[in-house]
Amino acid sequence: MNEVESRRSEHGWRRVLFEVIFEADTPAGKWFDVALIICILLSVVAVMLDSVEAIEIGYGRLLYAIEWTFTILFTIEYILRLICVARPMRYAVSFFGVVDLLAILPTYMSIFFLHSRYLAVVRILRVLRIFRVFKLGHHTKEAAVLKKALYASRHKILVFLLVVMTLVVVIGSLIYMIEGREHGFTSIPRSVYWAIVTLTTVGYGDISPDTPVGQFLAAIVMILGYSIIAVPTGIVTAEFSQTYKAKPTSQVCPNCCAEGHDSEARYCKFCGAELNP
Question: Rounded CA gap, 30 and 38, in Å?
Fold first, then answer.
């Protein structure tokens, strides 16, 4: 009987811990997310200030101590997240699980590689959890719809990128033949670089065609660039309109840690586990 009660007690505190850390529906969970976001922003500011030489000279030790304090707090939080979920490895390899791990690794790596601690700014990605805090708005819904639209259009975008890659290689080879080394197009790879810069309408201007034929080709590439930019936008927009569905909530599955469930859902649409046991 004592063993059964012990298991129930363990399940109870893990469930409470899960609700506080993962759920934004409860007051405790919301306050936890708000406090976490504030800590993330402060830690990122500390890392950025530490890269300023004048500030680093005067306050380097203080900023270093602050960075380690936040890192220890984030490490404890990461461990607690793994403890309270049903499948720790499932969460560890998820998007937020990887981001949480990357948020603490740079500071520990700085013990061996000094400047690696500046990579800690990657923890700004953890602020994406703010969408769960403000779930009453349309942010969560739009993020989920955008994710579905990008995933659904991946094959079309891949084909588009392959066409663009083929096009810039052909254009780069043509401009290399037309202009030659004497005009700065010293190789086909460098000419392909020019084609990419011109086609994307970036126009660095470090190399440019001098001959009339080369300038005519450049003008065609520039005009072509404007039409090409609109293609991926149209692809994603079409998928966006098709994947627009009912508004999902911030409810997190306690089994697989997946989000994006419908407001009336009782079971996870990814693993089938009960959402509110």
Answer: 12
**Does residue 174 fall inside a structural domain?**
yes
- Which pair of structure tokens corresponds to residue 28? 């405790």
167 and 237, same structural domain? yes
In which residue are the tokens 């850390």 written? 21
- How many angstroms separate the CA atoms of 245 and 262, rounded? 9
Q: Give me 18's structure tokens.
A: 């899960």
What pTM, to 2 d.p., does this model score? 0.57
Count up the domains in the chain and report the number. Answer: 2
207 with 111, same domain: the answer is no
Contacts of 93 (CB under 8 A, 6+ apart): none
Rounded Cα distance between 53 and 50, Å, is 7
Which of 210, 200, 212, 202 lies closest to 167, judged by CA?
200
* Tens of each residue's pLDDT in the chain, 277 residues: 455 455 555 567 888 888 888 876 778 888 888 888 888 889 889 888 988 888 888 888 898 899 899 999 999 999 999 998 888 898 888 888 888 888 888 888 888 887 777 777 788 877 766 655 555 444 555 666 677 777 778 888 888 889 999 999 999 999 999 998 888 899 999 999 999 999 988 888 888 899 999 999 999 999 998 888 878 877 777 776 766 554 556 667 777 777 766 666 778 877 888 876 5
Whether 257 is in a domain gets the answer: no
Q: Which residue has the tokens 């309408």?
A: 201
Phi, psi torsion values for 137, nearest 5 degrees: -85, -165
> What are all long-range contacts of 271-275, with beta carbons under 8 Å and residues at least 24 apart?
273/86, 275/251
- 118 and 158 together in one domain: no
The verdict on residue 73 lying in a domain is yes
